[in-house]
Amino acid sequence: MQIVIPLYDRFTALDAVGPYEVLSRVPGATVTFAGVEAREYTTDTGMLTIRADAALADVPSPEVIVVPGGPGSVEAAEDEALIAWIRNAHETTEWTTSVCTGAELLGAAGLLDGLDATTYWADMDMLARYGATATERRVVEQGKIVTAAGVSSGIDMALTLVARMTHEEVAKAVQLGIEYDPEPPFDSGSTRTASPETIALVRATIAARDEAAA
């Protein structure tokens, strides 16, 4: 089974690496980082790069697509080559998935119209532009399209995907293999539990980042 994670500049590292860590452990699966060009792509922090070893043109028909999100997703959604690849590959995929604002790329490819979907909590309004209904569920399955909420939820989505691709016991074994048993020190990982002050701080950080990138 060929799994492709398409990269673009200013993607969020964990959006791609979290699912990679899970899916690379599926027996018989190969996971390939690809891009419009085979080169290094810089993450949103600017301090880490990941190399796409293949050009998208070299992997036209993967069984699974995992589209990461990140601040660069806005520009990536306007990259005609990337969006055309997602649209064309989706015609033959078994699963087409996104993490965080990677949903914007699925939307730009016309794949979310009329579906329930999720994305990063601060970008939920974006989904309506593509005809999708936003939901706060961490993982949303709509046929062969699966969207995940922000960043760390890509691990949950990938484990869900492993269960669908193989068997629940395989997914459980992968979860144990990576010892994914989160016990966060704070109950602040959702807008339902975070304080208004924490939410305001994150929104201010996002606004400052976007202003600096403009």
Task: Describe what you observe in this structure.
With 214 residues, the protein is an alpha/beta fold. It is built from eight helices and eleven strands. It has helices at residues 13-23, 73-76, 80-90, 102-108, 126-129, 153-165, 168-177, 196-213, and strands at residues 2-6, 30-35, 40-42, 49-51, 54-55, 64-67, 95-99, 116-117, 133-134, 139-142, 145-148. A seven-stranded mixed beta sheet has the order 5-2-1-6-7-11-10, with helices on both faces. It has a two-stranded antiparallel ribbon with strand order 3-4. Strand 10 and strand 11 form a beta hairpin. The radius of gyration is 16 Å and the shape is globular.
Q: How do the helices and strands follow one another from N- to C-terminus?
A: EHEEEEEHHEHEHEEEHHH
Distance between the termini: 39 Å
Question: How much helix, percentage-wise, in residues?
Answer: 25-40%
CATH superfamily of the largest domain: Class I glutamine amidotransferase (GATase) domain
Q: How many domain modules?
A: 2
Features:
214 residues, alpha/beta, Rossmann fold, seven-stranded mixed β-sheet, two-stranded antiparallel ribbon, 36% helix
Annotate the secondary structure layout.
Blueprint: E1 2-6, H1 13-23, E2 30-35, E3 40-42, E4 49-51, E5 54-55, E6 64-67, H2 73-76, H3 80-90, E7 95-99, H4 102-108, E8 116-117, H5 126-129, E9 133-134, E10 139-142, E11 145-148, H6 153-165, H7 168-177, H8 196-213
Parallel strand pairs: 1-2, 1-6, 2-5, 6-7, 7-11, 8-9
Antiparallel strand pairs: 3-4, 10-11
Helix pairs in contact: 1-6, 6-7
